[in-house]
Amino acid sequence: MGKDIVFAGTRDTWERWRSFFESKGISLHLAEVIVPTPIEDLDQRISSLDPMNISSAIFSSKSSAKIFMSSHRGRDLLEKLRELGVMIAATGEGTASILLNHGYKAFSPPIERVETLLKILSEIYRKGEIVVFSSDRLEIPEEIYAERVRRIEVYELRISREGVMALENMLKKGIKRVMVASQTVSKILCGVEGISRNNGIEIHIMTDRIAEPLLQCQDKGFRLIIHNSSTFREFVATVINHMLSSPSPSRSLAVADLFNNPHI
């Protein structure tokens, strides 16, 4: 096939970037292999928090912000945190954008890793807990998962059998590139038959950490391209540049070009 690539991940990320890929002449297909699902006792978990004991609140993903804001108790808590002057932080501009749409401006440096943001916030001397709202699969290294850090799972990442089958079908039809920005998805891909049997598959990975599960099953023959991008926006730029693979400067895409773009 021509300029085609499969994004293996969540629908909201795909929807945000599909038209931008199309504007560059690339078809971005979706394999929704994971589906964010709210934790059943979400309200109870939120109610267990004492706003007076919180110094900072981190939203680890777009799904964490979206699901949290869908809860009446979540919205009430966030309003109390704002009144108390608690720092609200977000990993990724998409996460910050969701919070801003609800009227909350979050501290959102150009990083995507929760542990990096935790290190930044832990250096700020403030009494109280740093609360991380996340999925059930987020792993925080023990050395920074100290007494001050409390993780609240607000959603589960469930594997979608239909999404895995959709990926298999697209690979069978001849699409040779897959784009991955989640370690959970990397683990899933290790078990995808169409990838293990096809030596012509290119898997574009956002960072080396995300690539770890696939590196462990490298004997399967696919080609890993690790971009080590600091942000998803940068990841998009490097993937598109790789696919265009043209020496012409006019076809080279800088990260700055993605800001002020009407497609995003």
Gist of the model:
The chain is α/β, with parallel strands linked by helices and 264 residues long. The protein has helices at 11-23, 42-47, 62-69, 72-83, 93-101, 114-122, 161-172, 183-189, 193-196, 208-215, 232-244; strands at residues 4-8, 27-31, 34-38, 54-59, 87-90, 129-135, 149-159, 177-180, 202-205, 223-226. It has 2 domains: 4-33 and 160-258, Rossmann fold (3-Layer(aba) Sandwich), CATH 3.40.50.10090; 37-155, Rossmann fold.
Name the helix and strand elements from N-terminus to C-terminus, one letter apiece: EHEEHEHHEHHEEHEHHEHEH
- The CATH topology annotation of the largest domain reads as Rossmann fold
The total domain count is: 2
Give the quaternary arrangement of the chains. single chain
Shape: elongated
Strand content: 15-25%
**Estimated structural class:** alpha/beta
Q: Terminal Cα separation, in Å?
A: 26 Å
Helix content: 25-40%
| Largest pleated sheet | 5 strands, parallel
Radius of gyration: 19 Å
Discrete helix count:
11
Average pLDDT value? Answer: 87
